[in-house]
Amino acid sequence: MSHAIRIHEHGGPEVLRYEEVDVGEPGPDEVRLRQTAVGLNYIDVYHRTGLYPVPQLPSGIGLEAAGEVEAVGANVSDLKQGDRVAYASPPLGAYADSRLIPADRVVRLPDGIDDRKAAAMMLQGMTVEYLIRRTFPVKKGQTVLFHAAAGGVGLIACQWLKAIGAKVIGTVGSNEKAELAKAHGCDHPIVYTREDFVARVKEITGGQGVPVVYDGVGKDTWEGSLDCLAPMGMMVSFGNASGSVTEFNPGILSQKGSLFLTRPTLMTYTAKRQDLVASANALFEVVLDGRVKIEVNQTYPLAEATQAHRDLEARKTTGSTVLLPES
Question: Where in the numbering of this chain does the Enoyl reductase (ER) domain appear (predicted)?
Answer without folding.
Answer: 11-323
